[in-house]
Write a structure and sequence with these properties.
2-enoyl-CoA Hydratase, Chain A, domain 1; two-stranded antiparallel ribbon; 2 domains; alpha/beta; 8-stranded mixed sheet
């Protein structure tokens, strides 16, 4: 191959690289422009309705809770639409959002709009709302708390592996991965779950103005469809955001012409994990990280039975 041919090939390779980096730069600028237009980290100006979107697993989210709290005293926020599509999550995460939403609901109308799934902690955060809308096919309810653990002592024994634990007290390592749960440990953990369950029931009683005995009868952990939940008093109406805005206008005097602005707590990473790219980014995150990460503590999470 001649020197002239080598130079020509090198030039083509260089040109391809330049094209790649130019395209990459343009895409980066487009993303930055979209982020700027959507006003990440910038509060909307003028009177408006704020849409708070909660999707996926609910965990502790200090920034979101603080942003919701701030709306209670924001005179420009005339009402809040809480859009939920979640199977639940940690009890503490649900409690944090529930309490923040309740503080806002004490000052201005809050309407919950349920998507395909608003169960367990996803239902917990809806109950302080002035009105709850669900689709006919929404899965909601699943009022309850669970705590899961694994135990591999049988497998370790077959492999000839012994595990030793030095502990300050008999309950310090309950539950343990390397030995069966003791009767006393089971009793203590069941007490924790029962206490958290009663707290959850209390939120529903207060938010939905229902008799405690009635809530206990419904709160056996099962999910309900939106149609079933309506008949049971767990939701108020069938519908979506359009119906929620109409109710705000007719019942709360909130102008139907007000713009609806999404609540944003700032950050490119947070924006990338939601919206149009949310499912893609969450899938990548799960494939890279989730196999080595687990949720700690008790959960208010609806999950399909293995049976």
């Amino acid at each position: 191959m001649s020197l002239e041919t080598d130079l020509l090939l090198d030039r083509r390779r260089l040109k391809r690289r330049l094209v790649f980096w130019r395209v990459f730069s343009v895409l980066a600028l487009v993303v930055a422009a979209v982020v700027a237009i959507r006003g990440i980290g910038v509060a909307p100006v003028g009177a408006h309705i704020t849409r708070v979107t909660v999707s996926g697993i609910i965990t502790e989210d200090r920034k979101l809770a603080e942003a919701i709290d701030a709306m209670a005293d924001d005179s420009q926020v005339k009402a809040v639409i809480l859009s939920i599509d979640s199977p639940g999550g940690s009890v503490s995460g649900g409690e944090s959002l529930h309490d923040a939403i309740a503080r806002v609901a004490a000052n201005k109308p809050v309407v919950a709009v349920m998507g395909g799934l608003a169960a367990s902690a996803g239902y917990m955060i809806a109950v302080p709302s002035s009105r709850i809308f669900a689709r006919d096919s929404t899965l909601t309810g699943s009022i309850g708390v669970l705590m899961e653990t694994g135990e591999v002592s049988g497998l370790l024994g077959k492999l000839g592996i012994d595990a030793e634990t030095i502990r300050s007290g008999p309950l310090k390592d309950e539950p343990s991965l390397t030995r069966p749960l003791s009767d006393e440990g089971r009793k203590v953990l069941q007490g924790l779950v029962n206490n958290l369950y009663e707290q959850f029931v209390g939120m529903v009683v207060t938010g939905r103005h229902m008799d405690p005995a009635r809530v206990h009868a419904l709160a056996d952990g099962r999910p309900y469809t939106g149609q079933q939940a309506l008949g049971l008093g767990l939701v108020d109406a069938i519908g979506g955001e359009r119906e929620a805005k109409a109710w705000l206008a007719t019942q709360k005097g909130v102008s139907a012409g007000l713009p609806v602005e999404d609540l944003s707590t700032g950050g490119l990473a947070r924006w990338a994990m939601r919206g149009e790219f949310g499912w893609i980014m969450q899938g990548l995150w799960k494939s890279l990280v989730s196999q080595s990460v687990s949720l700690d503590g008790p959960l208010a999470l609806w999950q399909l039975s293995d049976n």
